[in-house]
Q: What sequence folds into this?
């Protein structure tokens, strides 16, 4: 990215959150993961790709508020029928990631697409923030 553009990427947001089910007395642990993200920039804006395996569109939440872009999603990892889970490293992971956007970007025109577990966000640059060539006249 060029020096005029700001997209702050936090270093880590993974952790474990504990939630309680009203029907059970035991606590259940929910794994929180920061999805892997690739960000590309050109003169038109940025394109962000986030890996969200097992996430359906209905469980994906992308929001922009106060210059912050947040991605949250709940994945469902189905167990094959007829089999019993013997060992599970990650069950129903919750993805969460937040970015700070500069005012150079037009957040009202963000395009979001989810295909085969990959979220693609296209965030265009504001017209006035796009690089432009200055014509020089002979004087």
A:
């Amino acid at each position: 990215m060029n020096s005029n553009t700001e997209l702050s990427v936090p270093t880590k947001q993974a952790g474990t959150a504990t939630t309680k089910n009203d029907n059970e007395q035991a606590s259940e642990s929910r794994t929180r993961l920061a999805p892997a993200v690739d960000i590309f920039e050109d003169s038109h804006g940025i394109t962000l790709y986030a890996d969200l395996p097992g996430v359906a569109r209905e469980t994906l939440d992308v929001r922009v508020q106060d210059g912050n872009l947040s991605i949250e999603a709940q994945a469902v990892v189905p167990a094959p029928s007829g089999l019993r889970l013997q060992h599970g490293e990650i069950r129903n992971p919750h993805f969460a990631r937040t970015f700070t956007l500069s005012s150079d970007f037009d957040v009202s025109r963000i395009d979001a697409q989810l295909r085969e577990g990959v979220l693609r966000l296209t965030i265009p640059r504001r017209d006035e923030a796009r690089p432009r060539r200055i014509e020089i006249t002979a004087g």
Notes: The first strand starts at residue 7 and ends at 8. The domain at 33-77+92-129 is CATH 2.60.40.790 (Immunoglobulin-like).
